[in-house]
UniProtKB/TrEMBL annotation:
It comes from Streptomyces parvulus. Residues 7-219 form the CobQ/CobB/MinD/ParA nucleotide binding domain. This is ATP-binding protein. InterPro entries: CobQ/CobB/MinD/ParA_Nub-bd_dom, P-loop_NTPase, ParA/MinD_ATPase. GO terms for molecular function: ATP binding. Pfam families: CbiA. It comes from the Bacteria. Keywords: ATP-binding, Nucleotide-binding. The keyword ATP-binding applies. PANTHER family: ATP-BINDING PROTEIN, SEPTUM SITE-DETERMINING PROTEIN MIND HOMOLOG, CHLOROPLASTIC-RELATED. SUPFAM superfamilies: P-loop containing nucleoside triphosphate hydrolases (SSF52540).
Amino acid sequence: MKIAFVGKGGSGKTTLSSLFIRHLAAAGAPVVAIDADINQHLGAALGLDEAESAGLPAMGEHLPLIKDYLRGSNPRIASAEKMIKTTPPGEGSRLLRVREDNPVYDACARPVELDGGAVRLMVTGHFTDADLGVACYHSKTGAVELCLNHLVDGPDEYVVVDMTAGSDSFASGMFTRFDMTFLVAEPTRKGVSVYRQYKEYARDFGVTLKVVGNKVQGPDDLDFLREQAGDDLLVTVGHSDWVRAMEKGRPPRFDLLEEVNARALRALRTAADETYGSRDWRRYTRQMVEFHQRNARSWGNERTGTDLAAQVDPGFVLGEEVVAPA
């Protein structure tokens, strides 16, 4: 399942996404974890020290390799240089799968050992001084969107993405790439304002959205979130001594996480797994094509000097049964 964690800056979405990743790894599930936030903290939340986090390869720096691999023998794509972040797969394209080894993972993913298992971690890379004044962060996340467009995942396989804060995800079509979006909200007016904005933007795109209440300290906080989020409120999380120790760089064994918080993580996995039966690969493919055509018209055609709409394979539908070339 493809799962996004979103929310206001400081809401705790990176902490909760890291806990969920640990929960999946402890259960033996294959996981690809992606840090797509402008503030790159997922590695540290998964236990990497500063040097290890700094040494993670940035996906954006390997974009030519990613494009070349995913292009495969697709005759509709003249060259890897003509691909943009929204280029959809077609006949002859190579696809990514969670459990395989491939050149994209070799270049961009690193294994992170966790209690009871390991995950593949990929990062977009930091927003550097060289980017100031000449780039926006969406140029960094383009590599993630391209990979998600070419990703085929099955049941009991997980791709967990720690997204950029607020509603920045709507600057591209990446918000439609997920089976489940968990919005982390604090019990404050600012905390729920991002929820309302996200729900409004996502309304017409079939996005499955659930709220995870964080930093909930008592009945008043719970009542506030229930009033604001209604049935979208899935679970709430309160204070955690385990998390406090983790943030100090001294995480206990994961099986020592408080039972109330472990129960919340189990509820997240159950909710994500339940979306599998309602997957609609045709809608998923149609949406990526729609966003590709939007990007082509607004900037892609001019930048590449070609009609990018010609990259669309009208008969292709992404799905688990698709067999891509080796």
